[in-house]
Amino acid sequence: MTENTVEFGGQQLTRGDLLYEGKAKQVFATNDPSIIWMHYMDQVTALNGKVKEEYSGKGELNSSISNLLFTYLSNQGLQHHWLGSISATDELVKKVDIIPLEVVTRNYTAGHFVSRFGVEPMQQLSPRVQELYYKSDELDDPFMNDSQAVSLHFASEADLKTVYGLADQVNELLVALFNKIDITLIDYKLEFGRLADGQIILADELSPDNMRLVDQKTGKSLDKDVFRQKQGDLRVGYQDVLQRLQDALK
Ligand code: C5P
Protein backbone atom coordinates (compact mmCIF):
# COMPACT_ATOMS: atom_id res chain seq x y z
CA MET A 1 0.00 0.00 0.00
CA THR A 2 1.21 3.52 -0.76
CA GLU A 3 -0.41 6.22 1.30
CA ASN A 4 -3.32 6.62 -1.10
CA THR A 5 -3.65 3.32 -2.88
CA VAL A 6 -4.20 -0.21 -1.75
CA GLU A 7 -4.71 -3.62 -3.29
CA PHE A 8 -7.92 -5.08 -1.90
CA GLY A 9 -9.80 -8.18 -3.07
CA GLY A 10 -7.83 -8.21 -6.33
CA GLN A 11 -8.71 -4.59 -6.97
CA GLN A 12 -6.52 -1.46 -6.91
CA LEU A 13 -8.29 1.10 -4.72
CA THR A 14 -7.36 4.77 -4.61
CA ARG A 15 -8.39 7.15 -1.89
CA GLY A 16 -10.47 10.00 -3.30
CA ASP A 17 -12.27 13.06 -1.97
CA LEU A 18 -12.88 13.65 1.71
CA LEU A 19 -16.63 13.13 2.03
CA TYR A 20 -17.04 13.79 5.72
CA GLU A 21 -14.96 14.56 8.78
CA GLY A 22 -16.48 13.50 12.07
CA LYS A 23 -15.15 13.97 15.58
CA ALA A 24 -12.71 11.07 15.37
CA LYS A 25 -12.84 9.80 11.78
CA GLN A 26 -12.35 10.95 8.21
CA VAL A 27 -14.39 9.35 5.48
CA PHE A 28 -13.09 9.31 1.89
CA ALA A 29 -14.51 8.16 -1.43
CA THR A 30 -12.57 5.58 -3.47
CA ASN A 31 -12.48 4.84 -7.19
CA ASP A 32 -15.05 2.08 -6.46
CA PRO A 33 -18.38 3.83 -5.73
CA SER A 34 -19.49 0.95 -3.49
CA ILE A 35 -16.45 1.25 -1.20
CA ILE A 36 -15.53 3.94 1.34
CA TRP A 37 -12.13 4.53 2.97
CA MET A 38 -12.24 5.40 6.67
CA HIS A 39 -9.35 6.88 8.62
CA TYR A 40 -9.30 6.92 12.43
CA MET A 41 -7.81 10.12 13.85
CA ASP A 42 -6.02 10.59 17.16
CA GLN A 43 -8.51 13.26 18.15
CA VAL A 44 -10.86 12.83 21.09
CA THR A 45 -13.79 15.10 21.81
CA ALA A 46 -16.39 15.52 24.51
CA LEU A 47 -19.53 17.64 24.85
CA ASN A 48 -20.27 17.15 21.16
CA GLY A 49 -16.92 18.54 20.01
CA LYS A 50 -16.72 21.47 22.43
CA VAL A 51 -13.76 19.88 24.26
CA LYS A 52 -11.03 18.50 21.98
CA GLU A 53 -7.62 16.87 22.50
CA GLU A 54 -5.06 14.80 20.59
CA TYR A 55 -3.87 11.46 21.94
CA SER A 56 -1.26 9.88 19.69
CA GLY A 57 -2.02 6.23 19.00
CA LYS A 58 -5.70 6.56 19.87
CA GLY A 59 -6.79 6.20 16.24
CA GLU A 60 -4.89 2.94 16.05
CA LEU A 61 -6.45 1.64 19.25
CA ASN A 62 -9.98 2.47 18.07
CA SER A 63 -9.38 1.01 14.65
CA SER A 64 -8.00 -2.23 16.13
CA ILE A 65 -10.87 -2.60 18.62
CA SER A 66 -13.49 -1.82 15.99
CA ASN A 67 -11.96 -4.31 13.55
CA LEU A 68 -11.97 -7.07 16.16
CA LEU A 69 -15.59 -6.38 17.12
CA PHE A 70 -16.83 -6.25 13.52
CA THR A 71 -14.97 -9.48 12.72
CA TYR A 72 -16.51 -11.12 15.79
CA LEU A 73 -20.00 -9.97 14.73
CA SER A 74 -19.58 -11.31 11.19
CA ASN A 75 -18.35 -14.62 12.57
CA GLN A 76 -21.63 -14.73 14.49
CA GLY A 77 -23.60 -14.11 11.27
CA LEU A 78 -24.37 -10.43 11.64
CA GLN A 79 -24.07 -8.26 8.54
CA HIS A 80 -22.31 -4.91 8.67
CA HIS A 81 -20.39 -2.41 6.55
CA TRP A 82 -16.82 -3.34 7.57
CA LEU A 83 -14.80 -4.96 4.76
CA GLY A 84 -11.26 -5.02 6.06
CA SER A 85 -8.39 -3.22 7.62
CA ILE A 86 -5.75 -1.73 5.27
CA SER A 87 -3.37 -0.16 7.80
CA ALA A 88 -3.17 0.43 11.54
CA THR A 89 -5.58 3.36 11.28
CA ASP A 90 -7.44 2.85 8.00
CA GLU A 91 -10.17 0.49 6.87
CA LEU A 92 -12.49 -0.11 3.96
CA VAL A 93 -16.24 -0.26 4.43
CA LYS A 94 -19.28 -0.73 2.23
CA LYS A 95 -20.85 2.48 1.02
CA VAL A 96 -24.18 2.99 2.77
CA ASP A 97 -26.57 5.89 3.13
CA ILE A 98 -26.37 6.56 6.83
CA ILE A 99 -29.76 6.79 8.55
CA PRO A 100 -29.48 10.04 10.56
CA LEU A 101 -30.37 8.34 13.84
CA GLU A 102 -28.11 7.33 16.69
CA VAL A 103 -29.38 4.16 18.32
CA VAL A 104 -28.39 3.94 21.98
CA THR A 105 -28.76 0.71 23.94
CA ARG A 106 -28.52 0.87 27.72
CA ASN A 107 -27.97 -2.23 29.84
CA TYR A 108 -27.19 -0.23 33.01
CA THR A 109 -28.02 3.31 34.08
CA ALA A 110 -25.30 5.90 33.36
CA GLY A 111 -24.67 9.22 31.65
CA HIS A 112 -27.71 11.07 30.37
CA PHE A 113 -30.08 8.36 31.59
CA VAL A 114 -28.98 9.23 35.14
CA SER A 115 -29.05 13.01 34.70
CA ARG A 116 -32.38 12.95 32.83
CA PHE A 117 -34.31 10.67 35.18
CA GLY A 118 -32.51 11.22 38.49
CA VAL A 119 -31.85 7.51 39.00
CA GLU A 120 -28.83 5.89 40.66
CA PRO A 121 -25.97 5.02 38.33
CA MET A 122 -25.00 1.41 37.55
CA GLN A 123 -28.50 -0.05 38.05
CA GLN A 124 -29.24 -2.91 35.70
CA LEU A 125 -31.96 -2.11 33.17
CA SER A 126 -34.15 -5.08 32.40
CA PRO A 127 -35.28 -5.17 29.71
CA ARG A 128 -32.49 -3.10 28.15
CA VAL A 129 -33.44 0.40 27.02
CA GLN A 130 -33.33 1.43 23.36
CA GLU A 131 -33.32 5.12 22.44
CA LEU A 132 -33.08 7.17 19.27
CA TYR A 133 -31.29 10.48 18.84
CA TYR A 134 -31.31 12.69 15.76
CA LYS A 135 -27.74 12.83 14.41
CA SER A 136 -27.12 16.58 14.26
CA ASP A 137 -24.03 18.32 15.65
CA GLU A 138 -25.69 21.75 15.36
CA LEU A 139 -28.61 20.59 17.50
CA ASP A 140 -26.47 18.50 19.90
CA ASP A 141 -28.05 15.20 18.80
CA PRO A 142 -31.50 15.70 20.36
CA PHE A 143 -33.59 12.80 21.64
CA MET A 144 -36.14 11.66 19.04
CA ASN A 145 -39.05 9.26 19.40
CA ASP A 146 -40.17 6.72 16.82
CA SER A 147 -43.09 8.72 15.49
CA GLN A 148 -40.91 11.80 15.00
CA ALA A 149 -38.36 9.70 13.08
CA VAL A 150 -41.12 8.18 10.92
CA SER A 151 -42.89 11.49 10.35
CA LEU A 152 -39.65 13.18 9.31
CA HIS A 153 -39.08 10.25 6.90
CA PHE A 154 -35.73 9.28 8.41
CA ALA A 155 -37.01 5.71 8.66
CA SER A 156 -40.29 3.86 8.16
CA GLU A 157 -41.92 1.88 10.97
CA ALA A 158 -40.62 -1.28 9.30
CA ASP A 159 -37.10 0.20 9.14
CA LEU A 160 -37.22 1.00 12.85
CA LYS A 161 -38.32 -2.55 13.60
CA THR A 162 -35.31 -3.78 11.63
CA VAL A 163 -32.96 -1.35 13.35
CA TYR A 164 -34.16 -2.25 16.85
CA GLY A 165 -33.96 -5.97 16.00
CA LEU A 166 -30.38 -5.61 14.74
CA ALA A 167 -29.45 -3.52 17.79
CA ASP A 168 -30.77 -6.33 20.02
CA GLN A 169 -28.76 -8.94 18.14
CA VAL A 170 -25.62 -6.80 18.51
CA ASN A 171 -26.38 -6.31 22.19
CA GLU A 172 -26.72 -10.00 22.91
CA LEU A 173 -23.44 -10.76 21.13
CA LEU A 174 -21.44 -7.88 22.61
CA VAL A 175 -22.70 -8.39 26.18
CA ALA A 176 -21.67 -12.06 25.98
CA LEU A 177 -18.23 -11.19 24.57
CA PHE A 178 -17.48 -8.45 27.11
CA ASN A 179 -18.71 -10.62 30.00
CA LYS A 180 -16.17 -13.23 28.94
CA ILE A 181 -13.38 -10.68 29.43
CA ASP A 182 -14.75 -9.37 32.76
CA ILE A 183 -16.11 -6.15 31.31
CA THR A 184 -19.66 -4.85 31.72
CA LEU A 185 -21.13 -3.22 28.63
CA ILE A 186 -23.07 -0.38 30.23
CA ASP A 187 -24.35 1.45 27.15
CA TYR A 188 -23.34 2.35 23.61
CA LYS A 189 -24.34 4.05 20.39
CA LEU A 190 -24.82 2.35 17.03
CA GLU A 191 -25.47 3.75 13.58
CA PHE A 192 -27.12 2.01 10.66
CA GLY A 193 -27.10 2.59 6.93
CA ARG A 194 -28.81 1.47 3.75
CA LEU A 195 -27.02 -0.38 0.98
CA ALA A 196 -27.89 0.49 -2.65
CA ASP A 197 -30.50 -2.33 -2.64
CA GLY A 198 -32.17 -0.87 0.47
CA GLN A 199 -30.92 -3.44 2.98
CA ILE A 200 -30.23 -1.92 6.40
CA ILE A 201 -26.91 -2.90 7.98
CA LEU A 202 -24.79 -1.91 10.96
CA ALA A 203 -22.30 0.89 10.14
CA ASP A 204 -19.94 3.39 11.82
CA GLU A 205 -17.43 2.16 14.44
CA LEU A 206 -17.47 -0.04 17.54
CA SER A 207 -15.00 1.38 20.04
CA PRO A 208 -14.70 2.77 23.57
CA ASP A 209 -15.38 6.22 22.07
CA ASN A 210 -19.00 5.13 21.69
CA MET A 211 -19.43 2.71 24.59
CA ARG A 212 -19.29 2.69 28.34
CA LEU A 213 -17.21 -0.25 29.50
CA VAL A 214 -16.54 -0.99 33.15
CA ASP A 215 -13.99 -3.43 34.55
CA GLN A 216 -15.99 -5.95 36.60
CA LYS A 217 -13.16 -6.45 39.10
CA THR A 218 -12.09 -2.86 39.77
CA GLY A 219 -15.19 -0.89 38.74
CA LYS A 220 -12.95 1.35 36.64
CA SER A 221 -14.08 2.94 33.37
CA LEU A 222 -12.24 1.69 30.29
CA ASP A 223 -13.81 4.13 27.84
CA LYS A 224 -14.19 7.80 26.90
CA ASP A 225 -15.71 8.62 30.32
CA VAL A 226 -12.06 8.76 31.52
CA PHE A 227 -11.58 11.75 29.21
CA ARG A 228 -15.02 13.26 29.83
CA GLN A 229 -14.41 13.16 33.59
CA LYS A 230 -10.73 14.19 33.35
CA GLN A 231 -9.59 11.01 35.09
CA GLY A 232 -6.31 10.63 33.17
CA ASP A 233 -5.09 9.06 29.95
CA LEU A 234 -7.95 7.29 28.19
CA ARG A 235 -5.49 5.16 26.18
CA VAL A 236 -4.72 3.02 29.24
CA GLY A 237 -8.27 1.66 29.33
CA TYR A 238 -8.52 1.37 25.53
CA GLN A 239 -5.26 -0.63 25.46
CA ASP A 240 -6.60 -2.91 28.20
CA VAL A 241 -9.84 -3.50 26.24
CA LEU A 242 -7.85 -4.26 23.08
CA GLN A 243 -5.54 -6.69 24.87
CA ARG A 244 -8.44 -8.58 26.47
CA LEU A 245 -10.33 -8.77 23.16
CA GLN A 246 -7.21 -10.03 21.36
CA ASP A 247 -6.74 -12.74 24.00
CA ALA A 248 -10.40 -13.76 23.90
CA LEU A 249 -10.75 -13.78 20.12
CA LYS A 250 -7.45 -15.32 19.03
O1 C5P B 1 -24.49 10.50 26.87
P1 C5P B 1 -25.35 9.27 26.94
O2 C5P B 1 -25.48 8.73 28.33
O3 C5P B 1 -26.68 9.49 26.29
O4 C5P B 1 -24.58 8.20 26.07
C1 C5P B 1 -25.00 6.86 25.96
C2 C5P B 1 -23.97 6.05 25.19
O5 C5P B 1 -23.95 6.43 23.83
C3 C5P B 1 -22.53 6.25 25.70
O6 C5P B 1 -21.85 5.01 25.63
C4 C5P B 1 -21.92 7.24 24.73
O7 C5P B 1 -20.52 7.04 24.58
C5 C5P B 1 -22.66 6.90 23.44
N1 C5P B 1 -22.87 8.10 22.59
C6 C5P B 1 -22.10 8.27 21.44
N2 C5P B 1 -22.29 9.37 20.64
C7 C5P B 1 -23.21 10.29 20.94
C8 C5P B 1 -24.01 10.14 22.11
C9 C5P B 1 -23.81 9.02 22.91
O8 C5P B 1 -21.26 7.43 21.14
N3 C5P B 1 -23.38 11.32 20.14
TrEMBL record:
It comes from the Bacteria. The lineage of its organism: Bacteria, Bacillati, Bacillota, Bacilli, Lactobacillales. Its EC number is 6.3.2.6. Transmembrane segments: none annotated. This is Phosphoribosylaminoimidazole-succinocarboxamide synthase. It catalyses: 5-amino-1-(5-phospho-D-ribosyl)imidazole-4-carboxylate + L-aspartate + ATP = (2S)-2-[5-amino-1-(5-phospho-beta-D-ribosyl)imidazole-4-carboxamido]succinate + ADP + phosphate + 2 H(+). One of its GO terms (biological process) is cobalamin biosynthetic process. GO terms for molecular function: ATP binding; phosphoribosylaminoimidazolesuccinocarboxamide synthase activity.
